[in-house]
C-alpha cells in the first residue's frame, strides 16, 4: 500500500514537472505540413476595396493581394487571414490571435509606443470629407463642418484627426462614434441621420459603386498618410522578412502595378 502511494506521488510530481517545463519553453512558430511557417494575418474583410469578400465569399482586395505577393517572395511562410472587426483589431494582435495586421493602418505616436511597423509603407491614403450626394452646401474643409453631425469609427486615424480639430476649436464638430466598419457611417449619411464623415476617398467611391449610396467626396484631401503592416514589438524576424519582400516589390514596380490594377493610379508614394 505504501509503495503504491509513493508511486502515485512520483507520477503526479513527474507530470507537474513536465507541465511546468512546457510552460517555460519558448513557443515555436506553427508549421504547415510542408514545413513552412504558418503566419496569421488580421484584417477586417469588410473594408472595400482594400479587404473584403467578393460575390463568391472569397477574401480579396488591394491589401490582400499585396500580402499574397509578399507570401510568394518570402517563400517559407504560409499566410492565413483572420477576419476581425475593426474595434477588436489591435486587441487581437496583442492577444496573439494573429501575427500582424494588414488593414490600412497609419502610424501615430500612441500606436508606435505599443507596436512595430514595417519600415516600408505599401499605400498612401488620402482622407476626404464625405457628404450626402445631393448636399449642395459649400462644404470643402473641416471648418465648414462646424455645428454638423460628423460620424466616425472608434479608434481610427480619421477619428483622431477630427478629435484634434475639436480640441483646437471648442468641440465645434458634433462627433457621433460608430463601432465596426465604415459602411454603416456611409449609410447613415445617405439616410440623413448624420451630415458627414472623414475617410479614405477610394473607400467612399467603392461604396457608391457597389451599394449605390447617394454620397460624395468634397474639397481637397484633408491629409495624406502612409499605410503600414503592424506587428507586436519583438517580432523582428518576421517583420524583417515582410519588409525585405515589400522593398523588392517597390523596387521592381510590382507594388505600383497592383495599385494601378485596383485603382487605376499609383497610390504607393
From TrEMBL:
Residues 38-266 form the Solute-binding protein family 3/N-terminal domain. SMART domains: PBPb. It holds the Pfam family SBP_bac_3. Keywords: Signal. Residues 1-24 form the signal peptide. PROSITE patterns: PROKAR_LIPOPROTEIN. This is Cystine-binding periplasmic protein. The lineage of its organism: Bacteria, Bacillati, Bacillota, Clostridia, Eubacteriales. The gene is fliY_2.
Amino acid at each position: 500500500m505504501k509503495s503504491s502511494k509513493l508511486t502515485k506521488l512520483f507520477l503526479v510530481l513527474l507530470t507537474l514537472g513536465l507541465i511546468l517545463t512546457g510552460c517555460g519553453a519558448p513557443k515555436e512558430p506553427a508549421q504547415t505540413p510542408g514545413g513552412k511557417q504558418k503566419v496569421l494575418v488580421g484584417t477586417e474583410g469588410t473594408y472595400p476595396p482594400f479587404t473584403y469578400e467578393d460575390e463568391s465569399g472569397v477574401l480579396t482586395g488591394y491589401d490582400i493581394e499585396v500580402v499574397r505577393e509578399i507570401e510568394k517572395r518570402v517563400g517559407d511562410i504560409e499566410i492565413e487571414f483572420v477576419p476581425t472587426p475593426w474595434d477588436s483589431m489591435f486587441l487581437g494582435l496583442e492577444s496573439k490571435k494573429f501575427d500582424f495586421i494588414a488593414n490600412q493602418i497609419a502610424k501615430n505616436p500612441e500606436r508606435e509606443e505599443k507596436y512595430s511597423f514595417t519600415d516600408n509603407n505599401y499605400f498612401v491614403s488620402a482622407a476626404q470629407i464625405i457628404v450626402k450626394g445631393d448636399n449642395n452646401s459649400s462644404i470643402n474643409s473641416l471648418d465648414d463642418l462646424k455645428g454638423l453631425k460628423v460620424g466616425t469609427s472608434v479608434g481610427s486615424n480619421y477619428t483622431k484627426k477630427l478629435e484634434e480639430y475639436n480640441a483646437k476649436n471648442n468641440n465645434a464638430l458634433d462627433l457621433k462614434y460608430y463601432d465596426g466598419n465604415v459602411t454603416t457611417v456611409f449609410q447613415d449619411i445617405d439616410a440623413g441621420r448624420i451630415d458627414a464623415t472623414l475617410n479614405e476617398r477610394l473607400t467612399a467611391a467603392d461604396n457608391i459603386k457597389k451599394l449605390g449610396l447617394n454620397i460624395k467626396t468634397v474639397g481637397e484631401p484633408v491629409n495624406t498618410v502612409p499605410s503600414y503592416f503592424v506587428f507586436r514589438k519583438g517580432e523582428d524576424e518576421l517583420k524583417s522578412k515582410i519588409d525585405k519582400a515589400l522593398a523588392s516589390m517597390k523596387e521592381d514596380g510590382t507594388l505600383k502595378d497592383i495599385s494601378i490594377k485596383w485603382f487605376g493610379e499609383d497610390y504607393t508614394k
